[in-house]
Structures are given as structure tokens and as C-alpha cells.
Amino acid sequence: MVFKHPTAIVESEEIGEGTKIWHFVHVREKAKIGKNCTIGKGVYIDLEVEIGDNVKIENFVSVYKGVKIEDDVFIGPAVTFTNDLYPRAFIWDEDRMGYTVVRRGASIGANAAIICGVTIGEYAMIGAGSVVTKDVPPFGLVYGNPARLEGFVCSCGRKLSRIIREDDEKLVYACECGKEVEIKNHEIPQD
């Protein structure tokens, strides 16, 4: 069963079982929302947006056309995704649209702005208020304006600080939770 609050406007038929859509949400036609998602108050989900399973989108988030969000993603309050690098009120066509992907398990903090055309890697963490202008590697921790890589996090969310093995291809960190996390050297941005 899908829960749709009476004030929500849901124009899409592709909503997964167990999803909850709360007050004043607007879901446009052809948007796809997976199973067991929570869509908070005042969220806008544009045409053809794709959202995976078990995604939590907090209040007042804007998700515009061209965004794909994979499973198990957390999006904090008032996050905004853009879809045009050169916005003008008097010009719009599909050729101007930038595409953004948020990979499985990533978390985006409150009030972050995600500039179109980036990929946020698996289990990456974006700090609150950040402006993301470049790709974020898997497990990457970024924050600031513009957001910069400040380290790596475990899938549990804790910052990784103890390297237990390294070679030319990867670093292996140990997390307090007991997991080991491999960071491939080719996925670390070279600024």
C-alpha cells in the first residue's frame, strides 16, 4: 500500500509499495519512486525523475528532471538539485539539461546544492550547506563551498582515519564499527 497525504499532488502511477508521500508534496508525471520511500513535506519531484527503494527525502527538497537517485539514499531538508548549467528564464530545451546520479547509500546534508552533471558515489557523504560542483568518489566525505574532498566515510557513516593496508591500487581503512573499507586510488580526485 502507498500512503499519499490528501494535500499531496501525485501525477505518477509508478510509486512503490510501502512508500509514504507527505503534506504538500508534488510528484510530476512519469516520475518513478521505489518501495519503502519517505517523501517529506513540501518536496517537489519533477518529470521523469527516478528514485530507488528505501530512499528518505526530508522536507522541502527539490529534485528536478535529469536526476536519478539509487537505493538507500538519504537527502536532508531543503537540498536542491539543479538541471541547467546556464539558466536563463527565456531559454529552455532538453539539450541544456545536465544529468545527476546519486549512487546507493549516499547521504546529502541539509541545504546542500547539487549542481547538475555530477555523480555522487556509493556511500558518499555531503556536508550540510555544501555546494557540490564536481563528482564525489565512493565513500567520499565532502563539504564546503565549493565542496572539497575532506576524507572518507564508512557505510555506517563514521569518518575513516586509520589506514591498515595500502598499495598502488587501493587504500584499506578500518572503521570503528569493525568493517574494512577499500578506496581505489583511481577514484580519488587529483586536484
Low-confidence stretches: none
Structural class: mainly beta
Per CATH, which architecture?
3 Solenoid
Beginning-to-end CA distance, first to last residue: 48 Å
Rounded to an integer in angstroms, the radius of gyration calculated over CA atoms is 17 Å
Morphology: globular
- Helix residue percentage: under 10%
Work out the count of structural domains.
Answer: 1
CATH topology: UDP N-Acetylglucosamine Acyltransferase, domain 1
Percentage of residues in strands: 35-45%
Overall average residue pLDDT: 95
CATH class: Mainly Beta
Tally of DSSP helical segments: 0
**Order of helical and strand elements:** EEEEEEEEEEEEEEEEEEEEEEEEEE
Number of strands: 26
* Biggest sheet statistics: 10 strands, mixed
Strand order of the largest sheet: 1-4-7-10-13-16-19-21-22-23
